[in-house]
Every structure is written in structure tokens, then in C-alpha cells.
Amino acid sequence: xxxxxxxxxxxxxxxxxLGARGRLGxxxxxxxxxxxxxVLAQVRPGTPQRAATTLPAMAGVWWMPVAVxxxxxxxxxxxxxxxxxxxxxxxxxxxAWREEAPALMEAAITIARxxxxxxxxxxxxxxxxxAMPAVLRxxxxxxxxxxxxxLRVQLEQRLQAATQDGxxxxxVLRAGDFFGSGSGxxxxxxxxxxxxxxxxxxxxxxxxxxxxxxxxxxxRALVRVAEQxxxxxxxxxxxxxxHQATGQQWVQALAAVAATRGWLPPGGxxxxxxxxxxxxxxxxxxxxxxxxxxxxxxxxxxxxxxDNARLTALIGEEPRTPFDTAVHHAxxxxxxxxxxxxxxxxxx
Length: 348
Description:
Oligomer: single chain
Radius of gyration: 20 Å
Strand content: 15-25%
Mean pLDDT: 89
Number of strands: 14
Helix content: 25-40%
Shape: globular
């Protein structure tokens, strides 16, 4: 596919990151700052000191301890921002998403509109549902089958509608499973939670390839899209390919880390377990988070990839850390967490 865009000189560079203490938010803060942007990093009141100690030498970052729903206060402090990154996420339960996600989207829209800024939303593949085709393009029909997928479709439709009067520009950058930049992903909660004991747990068949987004790479892509935002439509969607990895590739990458850390005997191999989906579904009757996880099982047994032709036409080659290196860095970001007894709610 060949795509061309008109070239327009970008404007001065200031970004407001909503949810800067989250994994994606922090990755975005680092990426924009590294690229020379002035970064206004929104955090919940009471967290700026803790956030500041995380990045003591980060030039160009200003922490803003303001609740996201205090939109007037945020807008007053963020004057001059040309880009707003929506990196806010409720906890992973249907109830939290139903009650909080629409309100967070409305707050982000209000803030970006009043700043006359472009709103950037990291998307996912939930929109396409269980019958999704092997290749996902921006034009692929969205046929969400689960609660979270249908809600993601509604949120993106709301964002698109908000751009129709000319008062807001927005772009969705869609990606696969996140990993890296700290804890709370499938990597540390499932795949590598027992790595220090020589075991890896796969959520799907070992030969099924699905898209994975290393967050520092995705954040760098957000920066480059932001720098080319005036070449996009008022509402646009782009796909970030990331790493197309099978379960077996994860086993190989994790085995290399385990061997380096002395978690495997010389010549030893990782024991490979499978996610106990029947148990997860049963536990989901009383644990809301597991109910949400069980509903997404199809993601790891359905081969699919994201076509990034439109993204690369806009920004050039996609930022992509080699897979083994990305896995190594992602595990290093977890510190000593993997060596401690597993605290994950899902066990193999």
C-alpha cells in the first residue's frame, strides 16, 4: 500500500500527558522529553513528589498535581499545549470501565478542545472482536463481541463525533498487548510471573502470533505522529505493528533472560505451562478482574497482526527495539519483582 501526505512545518512543541504516572503515561513523558518537547505531566494530587523522584534529572518536565476532572484548573495550567495524550485507564474490571472510561474520555475531550490541541488516544484491538481477520487495517470493519470491545468502539465514536464541528483534532494510535515500562502487564502477571522458578505460562497456543507493543517504542511513535499531526485528517486512526510474536518466541526470549540470571541450570530449559482458563472463568464469578481477563481469551488464540502502512507513510520506519532486547529491558524494569514469590491472581 502506498500512502502520501502533504508536508507541513510543525508548530512549537508542548504536550500535556494525562495519567503521567501510569506505564504508558510515564513512557510518553520520557519519549516526548527525550525528543525536546516541553512536557506537562498530569498526576493525581498527592503524587508529584513521588513522580519527581522517579525522574530527578528529566529536563523539560513539569509535574501537575491536578485531578483530571478538574478540567478548568488543568486547562489554566496547561496553556500553550498543542498536544494532549490520553493515557488514563480505569482498573481492569467491567464495572470500572463502565463507570469511569466515558467520564475520562469526556474530560480529555474538554481539556483538548479548550487548549485547541490535538488529542491522541492509544487504542487496542478489542474493537474487532472474536471474528477479527488475520490482518487488521484502519479500514477493517469493527465488530466487537465483548463488553470492553463494544465500549472501546463507543469511546472512539464519541471522540470522532467531537471533531466534527472543527473545534478538536484527534488521532487514535492502535496497538497490540502492551509490555515494558513497569509492572501490570500480561508479561509480569502471566508470562513471566514464575520465571525465577524456571517456568513460563502461555495465555494461548505456542504457535499463534499476535501483536505486542513495547511501550517505549509506542511512546516514540506517539511523538513522531504528534510531530506530523497537521498532515492528518481532523479525526484519524493509525496502526502500530509492534512485535509479531508467538508463544514459542516468548519462551525463547524469556529462557535467555532466565539463563543469564541463573534461574536455569546449565543446558536447562524452561517448563512451559498454559493459562488455566477453566479456573480463570470459574474464579471470575467472584473476582471481577478475572472475569474481564477471561472475556479476552480469544486475543491469544486468534492469529492477527496490525498493518502499519499508513503509520510508516506518515513517520517513516516504525520505532522498534529488537524483541529479545525489549524483553530484557522490560524484565529489568520490574526490578526484583520476578525473584519474589508470585503475587499474581492468575496461577498456572
